[in-house]
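User: Hi! I have a protein structure encoded as tokens and I'd like to know what sequence might fold into it. I'm fairly new to this, so please keep things simple.
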């Protein structure tokens, strides 16, 4: 049986005003309810544009985009977004930050006291889910980056959005905190039964979290390949060392390099440092400095 998609992109395209080349072309993708889909790809390939378009923060100019069968014309309560920079209200406590938007809704729509009670119950449950019980009355500047991002996620989940859209939400966190956040968000996904669309630069993060990894390519921004992640639905950190995990990681890194043009840069640098032409010997780098391959994009690639 084919599961109908919750989010459906059909021949989706977008060109920013004043831009000569499209940011997205011919995006065809269906995302099922309760799926966790991750997006990777070279910088500028349109990951954030696609996410913001699904959020309704950008409008596409070609093709169709529907959520639950309805065309997207703007933001809606069925979709919540979490950004890399958590942007909490610094003058509100953790608990007040989590409740803020819901309280606004309660006031503006003249809800009953039972609605207020339900909101209080929900915010307490989210506080517990996120392990923030001990800091409920602290202010954002008293928290670590990981804790602040947990508050931002709890705030996004407050109104039970079926879809959570996340744009490099853990990009500003250190590696150890990121690992903890991975297990936390996977737990949240199971508990809340949300559909999660998650953009990242980190290939390991994409594999560890995703049921599917969508690899995008730039110039113009498009979907290159969609990979099923060959791991059990419930993951643990030890799986990062499995042959399946490492195999997909290599495949993704190679494909990102091929589609990003980085490979060409690397070959050029290698050629220069090989001193191919005997008539024009390559200058040896001064002592203590890095070689041609030791800096810039090539080094970043080699570090993977
Ligand atoms: N507001 C904007 N106005 C004009 N062009 C934009 C705008 N936002 C993005 N672009 C362009 O659209 C293309 C896709 O950008 P986008 O930010 O979606 O890429 P990305 O894959 O998220 O990149 P990164 O990995 O660096 O975050 C790029 O060429 C970018 O310059
Ligand atoms: Mg981006």
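Assistant: Happy to help. Inverse folding works backwards from shape to sequence: for each of the 304 positions I chose a residue that suits the local structure. Here it is:
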């Amino acid at each position: 049986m084919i599961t109908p998609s919750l989010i459906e992109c059909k021949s989706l395209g977008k060109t920013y005003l004043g831009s000569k080349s499209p940011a997205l072309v011919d995006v065809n993708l269906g995302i099922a309810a309760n799926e966790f889909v991750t997006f990777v790809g070279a910088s500028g390939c349109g990951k954030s544009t696609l996410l913001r378009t699904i959020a309704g923060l950008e409008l596409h100019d070609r093709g169709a985009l529907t959520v639950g069968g309805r065309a997207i014309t703007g933001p809606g309560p069925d979709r919540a977004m979490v950004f890399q920079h958590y942007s909490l209200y610094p003058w509100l406590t953790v608990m007040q930050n989590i409740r803020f938007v819901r309280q606004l809704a309660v006031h503006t729509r003249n809800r009953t006291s039972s609605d207020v009670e339900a909101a209080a119950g929900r915010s307490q449950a989210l506080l517990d889910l996120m392990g923030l019980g001990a800091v409920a009355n602290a202010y954002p500047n008293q928290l670590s980056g990981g804790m602040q991002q947990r508050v931002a996620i709890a705030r996004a989940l407050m109104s039970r959005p079926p879809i959570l859209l996340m744009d490099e939400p853990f990009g500003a966190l250190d590696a150890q905190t990121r690992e903890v956040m991975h297990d936390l968000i996977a737990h949240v996904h199971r508990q809340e039964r949300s559909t999660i669309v998650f953009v990242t630069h980190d290939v390991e993060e994409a594999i560890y979290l995703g049921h599917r990894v969508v690899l995008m390519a730039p110039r113009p921004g498009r979907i290159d390949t969609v990979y099923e992640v060959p791991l059990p639905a419930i993951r643990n950190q030890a799986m990062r060392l499995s042959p399946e995990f490492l195999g997909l990681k290599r495949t993704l890194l190679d494909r990102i390099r091929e589609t990003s043009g980085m490979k060409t840069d690397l070959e050029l640098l290698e050629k220069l440092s090989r001193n191919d032409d005997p008539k024009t010997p390559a200058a040896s780098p001064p002592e203590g400095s890095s070689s041609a391959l030791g800096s810039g994009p090539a080094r970043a690639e080699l570090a993977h």
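A useful reference point when you look it over: The chain is about 40% helix and 20% strand. Feel free to ask if any position seems puzzling.
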